[in-house]
Amino acid sequence: MSMIEGIKFGSLASLVGVTVAFSPVLAQQPRKPNVVVMLMDNLGYGELGVYGGGLLRGAATPRIDALAGEGTRLLNFNVEAQCTPSRSALMTGRFAIRSGTYEVPIGGVPDGLTQWEVTIAQLLSGQGYATGMWGKWHLGSAQARLPTNRGFDEWYGIPRTYDEAMWPSLDETRSMWPSVGDKQGWSARLVEPEPIYEARSGETPRVVATLNVDNRRTMEAEITRRAVDFIKRNASAGKPFFAYVPFSLVHMPTLPNLEFAGKTGNGDWADCLAEMDYRTGQVLDAIKQAGVEDDTLVIFTSDNGPEATNPWEGDNGPWRGTYFTAMEGSLRAPFIIRWPGKVPAGRVSNEIVHIVDLFTTIAHVGGADVPKDRPIDGVDQLDFFFGKQEASNREGFPAYVADRLSAVKWRNWKVHLVWQENMYAPPQKLPLPKVINLLTDRKEERDVAAYNSWVADPAMKIIGGLEESFKMYPPIKLGTSDPYTPPSR
Fold this sequence. Notes:
Alkaline Phosphatase, subunit A; alpha/beta; Sulfatase_N; single chain; signal; 2 domains; Arylsulfatase; 10 helices; 489 residues; Sulfatase; arylsulfatase activity
C-alpha cells in the first residue's frame, strides 16, 4: 500500500492501555472506553471564547471553554474545505478525493459514500460498541447509504444539508430572505422537501417531519435530547458506546431555538453561540451523570471554516478566508479533546492534525484494526494526544477544494497552487506556487517563494506520494453507484 511521503505515521495498537482487574476465579475483560464526537457545522476558528471569540462575538461560551481547560486544545487542527468531504474523511480515514466525496453533492447523480467504504461506526460496531448518530449525514441520501446501513444502530436527522430548510419558507418568511413568488419559486411538485428521518439498523427509515425553518430551529434540542438518552441508556447497561453528534449550529440559516432567541440581545448569531454552548454542556453533563466521565473520550470540533453568506457570515479568527477555499480560515478548525487521566489537561499545541486522523485514532481506542486493502490517510495520534510525545505523527497534507489540488501544508509552511480567498471568488491557477510562512504571515499576504524555494521539496514529496498511490488505487469518481468494486491491481 502506497502512503503519502512527508507524513510520519504512528504505530497502531490493538487495544487502549487499561488496567485489567483480576478476580480469584477469572479475569474480567477490560472495559472498552466510550467515544463521543461533537461536530459543529461551519464553526469558524474565531467563534469560541477560548479561541478569541465568545464575548467578542456577543456570547460567552463557558462550557466549551471549560472543556478546553480539562483537556488538550489544538491550534492547527485541519479539515477539508466543504461539509461532505470533511464528514467523509472523519468516517473513513481517507482523503475525500479518494472516495468520490470531494464536494457537496448538488443532485442528479448518486451521492455519498459507496458501500465499499468502511466507516468508523462499522469498525466500532464490530468491537461490540453501541453506535448512534443524530444530525446531518451528508454522505448519501439513498436508503442503502444512510447511517443505519453504514454501521450506526440508530439515527435521527437529515440526509443532506440545512440550506434546504429555506425552500418551504421562501414565501412564509419574507423578512429573512426575498420571496420569488409562487410562479417561479420552489414547489414540492418540482423538488421534494428534505425529510427528517428516524431510523434504526435493520429497519426502514421513517420520515418524522419535513425540514423547514421551524424544525430547523428545534434541531439542536432534539439532537441533544436523543444523544443524552443514548449515553445514559448504554452507560446504564454497561455497554461501550460511540456517540457521533453532528450538531446543526452554526450552519446557515443560522437561527436559534426560540428559547434562546433574544437571550443575548446581540442578534441571532450570538444567540446561536449561547445555545451551542448550552447544548454542549448538556451532553457533557449526561456523561458525568452516567458515571462514565473517566471512561469517555470526548472530542469537540467543527467540519469547516466559517460561513461566507450574508447575513450569516462567521468568524475566522486570525486567519484569512472562508470554507470552500484552501486558505487557513477554511482549513483550521477549533479542536478540543478530553479523556480524564489520559489526555493532559490545559495543554495547547500548534502541531498539525488532520480530520482523517480521527478515524485511525478512534479505531485504536476501540480496539479495531483499520482496513488493509485500501489507502488509509489517517495516522494514529493517540500517543500525541496522551502527551507521550510533543510532536504530532503528521507533518503535512494536501489541501483539495473539490477536485482541485489547491495547496499543500508542511509544518508551518503553506504552498498555494490555486489562489482563492473566499468561496465566491473564482479559483485562479497560479503560474508559480506561492510559499507562505504561517508563523510570520497569518493572513497569507506575502509570497516568500523567492528566498524559500526549498519548501517546494517536502511539499512536492507529499503530492508525489499521493499521486503515486492513485496509480495503485485509483480514486472513486463522483457519482459512482453501488456496487462498487475497485479495479484489480
